[in-house]
């Protein structure tokens, strides 16, 4: 089944009010990785594909393009080096893992904040939160935070080679008629975490199903 990529969509609604998130994210037939047999491709979704096709559909309990790539795990309940090494097989460099996760919000002297500490360290924000645009248009479908994992206690932890991109849905584009207390809570707290382990390479053949899959050039000496 060929599905349109947000990045290849030629027409994008001019205003968020006109943007039909339910329609553009609809998946007809989700599959499992084991059902896909096109070798030489990588799961390497763009930011808008992660938000529109995976996170939003997961929040609503709808069909996903593929069902077993993005696992559900308590990301902030684990140090990243505790995550299965076999999960880090995606992306162009085969060193990325993808997870659905809930964020934990706590109250402090600064108001409500998101807790991102683990047993042995913490995720430290690297820059400001960025908007995720739909394709080449102006519609903000989500937001992205980039963080680096540090061992130890803030602010004196030791930087590691784990980097995380955390994606959340823009609540302003979710149609009001699908909202209930459960959906609102998920929109506020449910995210996709794209964790990159720099310095490792897990090259091995994987499979293809759009949206979110890309080819990886074969280097000399690698199998094809």
From TrEMBL:
Has keyword S-adenosyl-L-methionine?
A: no
What is the name of this protein? NAC transcription factor 29
Q: Where in the cell is it found?
A: Nucleus
* GO (cellular component) term, any one: nucleus
- Look up and give the organism this protein is from: Prunus yedoensis var. nudiflora
Instruction: Name a single GO biological process.
Output: regulation of DNA-templated transcription
GO molecular function terms attached to this record: DNA binding
| Chief localization | nucleus
Specify the NAC domain's residue ranges: 37-198
Gene3D superfamilies according to UniProt: NAC domain
Q: Which domain of life is it from?
A: Eukaryota
Kindly state which keywords UniProt assigns to this record, in alphabetical order.
Answer: DNA-binding, Nucleus, Transcription, Transcription regulation
Q: Name one Pfam family in it.
A: NAM
**What InterPro entries does its record include?**
NAC-dom, NAC_dom_sf
Coiled coil stretches, renumbered: none
Do you know which SUPFAM superfamilies this protein is assigned to? NAC domain
């Amino acid at each position: 089944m060929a599905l349109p990529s947000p990045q290849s969509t030629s027409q994008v609604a001019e205003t968020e009010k006109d943007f039909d998130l339910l329609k553009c994210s609809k998946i007809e037939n989700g599959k499992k990785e084991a059902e896909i047999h096109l070798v030489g491709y990588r799961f390497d979704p763009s930011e808008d594909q992660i938000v529109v096709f995976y996170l939003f559909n997961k929040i609503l309990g709808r069909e996903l393009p593929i069902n077993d790539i993005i696992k559900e795990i308590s990301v902030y309940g684990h140090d990243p080096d505790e995550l299965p090494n076999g999960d880090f097989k995606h992306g162009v460099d085969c060193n990325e893992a993808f997870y659905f996760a809930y964020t934990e919000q706590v109250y402090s002297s600064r108001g409500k904040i998101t807790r991102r500490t683990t047993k042995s360290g913490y995720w430290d924000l690297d820059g400001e939160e960025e908007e995720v645009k739909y394709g080449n248009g102006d519609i903000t479908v989500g937001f992205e935070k980039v963080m680096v994992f540090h061992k130890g206690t803030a602010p004196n932890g030791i930087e590691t080679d784990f980097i995380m991109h955390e994606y959340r849905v823009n609540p302003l584009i979710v149609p009001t008629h699908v909202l209930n207390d459960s959906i609102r809570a998920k929109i506020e707290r449910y995210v996709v975490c794209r964790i990159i382990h720099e310095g490792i390479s897990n090259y091995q053949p994987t499979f293809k199903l759009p949206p979110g899959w890309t080819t990886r050039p074969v280097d000399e000496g690698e199998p094809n």
